[in-house]
Design goal:
Two copies of one chain form a homodimer. By secondary structure, chain A is an alpha+beta fold. In chain A, 55% of the residues lie in helices and 14% in strands. Chains A and B meet through strand 1, strand 2 and strand 3 of A and strand 1, strand 2 and strand 3 of B.
């Protein structure tokens, strides 16, 4: 009994330490975010049946990191994620102003139709816009293989582990017959 | 000696027959060119070292043809060709009006600088524009694996063989660090 509780306590400590380390890693990842990434890898994912395919460019700082298994795994995960989650943009800054305005108008109209008081209306629209970015921006989507982390967090964890800034510069996602998509 | 010449003649006949058949095939391919292509395959090509990758959607009329080895081979060939030849557009009609105008202006200025008489200047510009399309449009490029045929002819041969219209709807080509490219 005593042994069990000691074990439980030790496990708790370990989990806590991991959280601290992860936070520290992600914080240090933040510092690396401005460093330029000119090396990297182009990866692809073709879904079974070849009706859906993805091409993605993931960048890092050195050719050395680009060749590590960890980096290659990230590229594979991202390509697979993009196939499954169908993002429209890499990050919030990439969403065209016209798309944002259109979405805001839709959400404003919805809030008005729902008869919400004007005081809270703006807050609600803001919240729904956050939700919208989460749906259409790769970096804000929950990772399909582990939906408690976003793609941004997944990448930050790799930055912490590999010690280099990592960015996604672009992707293409083709589905047969779906020629309007990017 | 007699045997040899007979053989040579037979070979000549065979080559001639092939040309006729090919012409006939390509002619019948032309007739199929208006048929809609909603099925197909998304293929990719990642060049050794993963610094360059291509994604391409090739369409045909039926799922049955999409699954044939012939069609799959075409998709692989096209992806590889795009990686090597770096086209900017699928076909002439896809080139933006602004790009055409800019190129025409460049060629006109060149012709004037070369002091060509005005009578022939227009013809020369026309010829150089043809050359330009051949360089930037996938369908007009000579196939990298067999540069006596264009991609358009390569596809027409497959149309003749498989009996279905085949089209390339889109492609993406990513080279690491080359973020301006399409």
């Amino acid at each position: 009994m005593e042994c069990k509780s000691a074990l439980a306590e030790a496990k708790g400590d370990l989990a806590e330490a991991e959280v601290v380390l992860r936070k520290r890693g992600i914080a240090s990842a933040g510092k690396k975010a401005t460093r330029t990434t000119k090396q990297g890898v182009v990866g692809s994912y073709i879904h079974a049946g070849a009706q859906l395919g993805v091409l993605v460019e993931v960048n890092c700082e050195s050719d050395f990191v680009a060749r590590t298994d960890d980096f290659q795994e990230l590229v594979r995960d991202l390509a697979m994620h993009i196939a499954a989650a169908d993002p429209q943009f890499v990050r919030r800054e990439d969403v065209a102003e016209a798309v944002i305005e259109k979405e805001k108008d839709i959400q404003k109209a919805r809030v008005i139709a729902e008869g919400k008081p004007e005081k809270v209306a703006e807050k609600i629209v803001e919240g729904r816009m956050s939700k919208f970015y989460e749906e259409v921006c790769l970096m804000e989507q929950p990772f399909v293989k582990e939906n408690t982390v976003t793609i941004d967090q997944l990448i930050k964890t790799k930055i912490a582990k590999l010690g280099e800034n990592i960015t996604v510069s672009r992707f293409a996602r083709f589905k047969v017959g779906d020629t309007d998509a990017a």
